[in-house]
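Researcher: I need the complex structure. Ligand is iron/sulfur cluster. Inputs:
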Amino acid sequence: MTDRPPGKIFVIPFLEMDVAFACDLHCPNCTHYSNCGLKGYVPFALGSEWLRTWARRLIPKTFSLLGGEPTLNPDLLSYLDLIAELWPGSERALISNGLGLHRHPGLFERLAATKTRLEVSFHSFKDPDYVQRFNEALMAIETARQRLGFDFVYRPNETTFYRTYRGQGAGMRPYEDKEPHASWTECYNKLCCTIHEGRLWKCPPLAFLGKVVDRFGLRAVPEWQPYLAYRPLAPDVSDEVLHAFFRHEEILECAMCPARLEFSENGLVTRIEAAK
Ligand code: SF4
Ligand code: SF4
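Model: Output:
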């Protein structure tokens, strides 16, 4: 995908990409399914090709690198440089759980140099070990921020998790409230279109569904078939198709999500070992 795709460039509100699928935390109801033991990350040689190609079609007002836990990607600093090169006029953010920032010496300096905002999510008061590690990470961030001046946002996410599927593991099933407009109206992911496998997906729950059904052997489960049939966009789609993608609110696949949200306080499970 090195040739320039035909077509217009669209300015859109928001775009994101998971650069790691694994996570060292295990938050129930993670909308990227990273609590389900997903593995791996996107090597820069591959991910940079996807991003360069889509930068010829899309200019997001805000672009976020996330996961999973993006610090589990050894190429993270190269990604920061690349998104600053591709979208210099956009707001750019790195979204992390904060616990693995030390894995990348020079990360804070690179955030400052590329004017990338660091956003760190807090997930639970229930685990004292986690709270201590999080507070230590916050102190390191604040010390660096005072020295270097990068933007920082603290995201208290401990009460914002809602279930996007029923059951767990091999028992995972879509909601199927059969009210896709109501599901989309309630959805917290409605602006989170994402680049995955070189294509553009409506949201993380659809983008990473294939990974979680493979993890739990759910490929042939009848209830998941309508949602596994979702087709993301290739970067060479026509202007009309791309325009329709951003114009549409709900799609039929939104029926897999709840029409009435069920919130839970997020009792995370820490996994100290790297989850690569
Ligand atoms: S920190 Fe929690 S919510 Fe964030 S990716 Fe990891 S498991 Fe998901
Ligand atoms: S399928 Fe629709 S309702 Fe569900 S997360 Fe995606 S955009 Fe939201």
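Model: Summary of the prediction. Residues 183-184, 187, 189-190, 202-203, 205-206, 253-254, 256-257 surround iron/sulfur cluster (ligand 2) (CB under 6 Å).
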